[in-house]
Specification:
Oligomer: single chain
Largest sheet: 7 strands, mixed
Distance between the termini: 25 Å
Strand content: 15-25%
Order of helices and strands: EEEHEEHHHEHEHEEHEHEHEHHEHHHEEE
Radius of gyration: 21 Å
Strand order of the largest sheet: 3-2-1-4-14-15-16
Length: about 450
Amino acid sequence: MSVEPPYVVAGRIHTMDPARPLAEAMAVDGDRIAAVGTRAEVLAACPAGARVEELGGATITPGLIDTHLHMQRGGLKIIHDLGDATHDLDLVIATMREKGFAAGWGPQPPTPADRAAALRLVQPLMHQLGFTGIIDPAATPEELRGYQESRRRGELTMRVVAMPYPEVGGSADPDVDGAIGWLRGLGLRTGDGDDLLRVGGIKVYFDGEAMKGEALRRTPWPHSGSTGRQRLPTAQFQRLVDFCAAEGWSVGVHAVGGAAIAAVLDCFAEADRKHPIAGRQWQVIHGYLEVEPESMALAARLGVVLAAQPSIPLRNAAGLVAQLGAGAERMNPLRSWLDAGVPVVLGSDGPFFPFDPRELIWSAVTRRVRGRAEPLAPQEAITVAEALAAYTATAAVAAFDGDGRGRLAPGRLADWVAFDRDPLGVPPDELPTLRVLRTVVGGRTVHRAPA
């Protein structure tokens, strides 16, 4: 991506850098941050002739990273539902809220040109929400090629970490050998790539969805008498994670129910005994229903990340509490995960679920959800600062770029967003009304709100 000439932005800056949490100016040179500090300090450090932009009452934070967004599929869905044209963000959000992901692409699979068009369409919309990066879970070979083609064309403006999906499990024959063979044949490993497009860990499904009664529980689902669905036999799953631990692959596992989370972490612990996984960003993905304290403690000991999506309880919690009773009110226990010492990152699972980070932070902080007047188990609420860290500093680590992004500090990538008000200063119920004034990726403005 091309970059802008050196410049200084002045405003209230939440750097997410513990060494200097607040600043009043930041200098950008090329795609990197040159200086952060007081106005005088930054002006003294920046190149001669750099322009100064006064942002007035705006508040700057690091660019947001959605750690669980099917961005390419979202673009294809927008084309399917609304057509291949520029669309208003509010219309897109309203359409997704109304239709969910019920509508498919069509009788023929998307072509490479369709995928390129989808990415051209969806990236500006996500930039309007303050996103500068995403992790795309379960990227199929076609989706991987779609991102590569967008990169080749010079059209990739979002930093993407793509998690390859070997499509293992879900049948009587889990075909772990086929998955291992496919991974060997890729010629890639987790972390390969660069600042714009990088290979993440693989994505595996261990259980199913809660609303379908397929999350794996210790006790049966009331409506079916089944404890849920285990999509991959434990022994086969162990073989796969052992291979990944030995061969340099990280792993992200869809595990919703408490029994699934416990089983996955036990397998992670077994793999860790042979090839340590700490610091390699292995993930429990979702991890929100009837989570056991022992699982949280084990995840902390192993250095496993929780990739959580407040969007899921936002949309589904009222229905799950109706099915399972008051015990389900503690679903998505982010406070307990954090207090146990587990790194928590936030995402949306969009376009399947709501993806506006302002609404998701509001829900995580207030424990309010759709279709229910009372908040869910308020003791599981997190603070706005914790939620922002989960979208920035901690998210960057999970995206294999903890030294390059997520904090605004000299030498780091100049990925930042300006809000019209301070997210850490407004009342919680005002969070969904924050306005993104500007989004910058690598020093280059990719979104600027109309005056």
